[in-house]
Amino acid sequence: MAQQRDGLRGRRFTRSEQDAGAAGFLDGRVAVVTGGGRGIGAETARALARVGAKVAIGDLDLGAAEQIAAGLPRALALPLDVTDRAGFTAFLDEVERRLGPIHVLVNNAGIMSLARIEDEPDDITLRQLEINLHAVIHGTREAVRRMRPLAEGVIVNVASSAGKAGFAGAATYSATKHGVVGLSEAVRAELYGSGVRVCCVMPAIVRTELAAGLGDARGVRTVQPQDVAAAIVDAVRTGQFDVFVPRSAGIAMRISAMLPRGGRERLARALRADRLLLDATDSPARAEYEKRAAASAPYLDDHP
Asked: Which top CATH class is 13-298?
C-alpha cells in the first residue's frame, strides 16, 4: 500500500501530457465527481479518465451525466442530489459496489445565485448553504470514513477565489466558499500522517454557465473548465493543497493580503473586482442559469 501511495507523488504533468493520456498514474483507481454532468465537473471526469481512473459521475441531471460517461472508458453515471445526505451516502456505496474502493472524491457540485443581500430569498440562501457547503462537509466526511482505513486517497474540494475574499452581489456564495476553504484546512490537519490528502481548488472566473452575465475584471485572466480540470488532476498527482486557477489569482490574493484594509478595497475598485458580480445581478444573460439554480435541490423541496 505504501508503495502505491508513493507512486502518486512526483513531478507534475503538463496539460498536453494529461490530454495525451501519458500520465496514467490513476490506472484502475476509482474517482468520483459530483456535479459531473456539465462544466468543470464534466471536464474533470474526462481528465481523470485520461489518466486511467474508473470514473463515477453523479449529477442531478442523469441524462447529462450519462452523456459524459458514454464517451469515457470504464465510466459510471448515477443520479445524485448532494443535499439528500442519505442519498449521497447510498450513491457512494453503489459506486464502491460496482467499481471498487474510492480513491478520489471531487466535491464539485455547486451553484452561485447573485443578488444583493437584502434581495436574496431565504430559500436561495438555503440552497447555496446546502449544496455548496453542507454537501461538501458530508462528502468529505464520507470520503474520510472510506479512505482512512485504506491509508490512502485524495479529497478534492472545489471552492472559489470567493473563498478568500468577499464579493459584492454574492454574499452567501462567498460565505459558503469561505466555509469550504476552512473545512479543507481543518480536515487536512486532522488527516496528517493518515495517507489521505485534501486539495482545495479555488478558480477565479471560469467560462461556464455559472458565470453567465459576468464581465471581466482587470488583471484577472478568465479560464476554461478544462484548465480547472487539469489543475485538479495535477493536484491529485502532486498533493498540492492550495490550487488557484489561474495561478496568477493566487499571487494576486497573496499580494492583496499584505495590504491594509483600505488598500485592498482601493485595489479592488481599481480592478473592478468590487463590481464584477454585483453588476451581473441585473444581467438578462443570467436569467436562465438563475432559474435552474433555483430548482437545483429536489430534496430540499420535499423537506422544508
From this structure: alpha beta
C-alpha span between 81 and 301 (Å, rounded): 12
- Select which of 173, 192, 289, 299 is catalytic: 173
Q: Cell triple for residue 251?
A: 499571487
* Maximum C-alpha span of the chain: 54
- pTM of the predicted protein model: 0.88
In this model, does residue 19 exceed pLDDT 60?
no
Measured CA to CA in angstroms, residue 137 lies from 108, 143, 165, 282, 292 at distances of 12, 10, 20, 32, 23
CA distance 297 to 292: 10
Q: Is 172 left (phi over 0), alpha (psi -120 to 50) or beta?
A: alpha
Under 8 Å CB-to-CB from 197, ≥6 apart: which residues? 153, 154, 155, 188, 191, 239, 241
**Residue boundaries of the structural domains of the chain:** 13-298
- For the question of residue 173 being annotated catalytic, the response is yes
